[in-house]
Write a sequence for this structure.
């Protein structure tokens, strides 16, 4: 029996691919234009021993721009198409985010058309699009971008379902509303609502992972990574530059979520480099923790009182899921320590397991920022793997339903041929 295969477009560092793999799908192709996030994906999801991936020989395993790949490797993609049941992906979301400028002419928004071109080429049985909530309100000449994409998919022969889901409801310790679109070849899922299946599967999904029904809080995700619980040692990668990391010792009393993120990993988590702050910055962070409400962005009056010009700074609440993880580490302050989060802590809030090692520079600044995709950016842009895994399991069930409905139609057709007289027969 052939293992169901998928293609990930605009794959980033691999959060969506990781979730699909863990749900039982085989990665056949991941298209990501920036070499740093692609390096992260390749390291963890293709080259890693036991990875559920089968890369085609006809396509170099390097970063690719989807538009150029569709033009330069079309024959190879056509040869790959027959074995692809699912396309997943999220066209770059910065142009749609309500936190950005939301320019209609943002060139990243035009990549939606490349996604649709790939759908027309592969003609998979199922599709998944993931994006920010602003995808449903960003204006397009034909309504909103979500309206435009849905209409185009209908024209390509698909039935379409959409919904806004919150990552926290699926065990991710983060408030992260996301737009999801699921599509299936027209008429293949008669009477089935994919999102009803997703909601129905929630309790079982969480229970199987030991998470129960309550939302996972920030401290349940991060408490074993607190500096106060460990000695400090030179950072494994950047110790020569004076950076330190915690000397991680796995504790017996890990939370259920922390055990899930350890994922059988017996070594030290990757990406534990502790941010270095000046005494003045640390003092300001301490005052924020002592005087500002937790779990929401600092108010204008508190910003004025503290002399803070930055608009989006949130002291995390230890008892709630964190705010949405962004690409900027200084958007959030640790709930008990006057500092921003380590990369591993942000990855934990996104539900990346501790063995998942990010590649490329940590941060970027100045003239490099426009074209850079450092590790913090990769984490902030990613789809939470735990949410992706939940959706991937539902998609796997939908694929089975498509097969069952196809067999039913075949059986009905055979019965019809058996009962209807052939031409020239006497009934």
């Amino acid at each position: 029996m052939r293992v169901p295969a998928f293609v990930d477009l605009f794959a980033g560092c691999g959060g969506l691919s990781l979730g699909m793999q863990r749900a039982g799908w085989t990665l056949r192709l991941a298209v990501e234009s920036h070499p740093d996030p692609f390096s992260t994906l390749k390291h963890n999801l293709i080259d890693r021993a036991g990875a559920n991936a089968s890369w085609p020989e006809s396509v170099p395993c390097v970063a690719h721009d989807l538009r150029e790949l569709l033009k330069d490797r079309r024959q190879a993609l056509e040869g790959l198409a027959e074995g692809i049941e699912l396309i997943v992906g999220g066209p770059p979301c910065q142009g749609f985010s309500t936190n950005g400028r939301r320019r209609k002419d943002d060139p990243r928004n035009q990549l939606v058309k490349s996604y649709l071109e790939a759908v027309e080429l592969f003609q998979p049985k199922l599709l998944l699009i993931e994006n920010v909530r602003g995808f449903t309100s960003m204006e397009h000449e034909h309504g909103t971008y979500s309206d435009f994409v849905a209409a185009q998919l209908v024209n390509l022969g698909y039935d379409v379902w959409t919904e806004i889901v919150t990552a926290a409801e699926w065990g991710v310790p983060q408030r992260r509303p996301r737009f999801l679109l699921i599509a299936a070849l027209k008429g293949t899922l008669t009477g089935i609502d994919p999102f009803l299946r997703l909601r129905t599967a929630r309790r079982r999904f969480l229970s199987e992972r030991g998470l129960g029904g309550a939302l996972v809080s920030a401290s349940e995700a991060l408490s074993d990574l607190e500096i106060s619980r460990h000695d400090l040692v030179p950072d494994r990668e950047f110790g020569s530059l004076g950076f330190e990391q915690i000397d991680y010792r796995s504790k017996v009393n890990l939370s259920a979520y922390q055990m899930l993120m350890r994922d059988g990993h017996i070594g030290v988590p990757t990406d534990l480099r502790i941010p270095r702050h000046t005494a003045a910055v640390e003092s300001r962070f301490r005052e924020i923790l002592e005087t500002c409400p937790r779990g929401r962005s600092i108010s204008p009056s508190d910003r004025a009182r503290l002399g803070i010009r930055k608009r989006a700074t949130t002291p995390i609440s230890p008892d709630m899921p964190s705010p949405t993880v962004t690409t900027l580490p200084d958007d959030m302050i640790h709930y008990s320590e006057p500092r921003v989060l380590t990369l591993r802590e942000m990855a934990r809030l996104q539900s990346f397991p501790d063995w998942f090692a990010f590649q490329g520079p940590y941060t970027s600044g100045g003239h490099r920022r426009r074209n850079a995709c450092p590790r913090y950016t990769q984490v902030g842009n990613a789809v939470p793997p735990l949410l992706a895994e939940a959706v991937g399991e539902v998609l796997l069930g939908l694929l089975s339903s498509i097969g069952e409905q196809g067999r039913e139609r075949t059986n009905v057709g055979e019965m019809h041929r058996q009962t209807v007289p052939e031409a020239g027969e006497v009934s």
Notes: The chain has a mean pLDDT of 88. The chain has two domains: 5-213+383-412, 218-360. The first helix runs from residue 15 to 23. The longest strand covers residues 158-166.
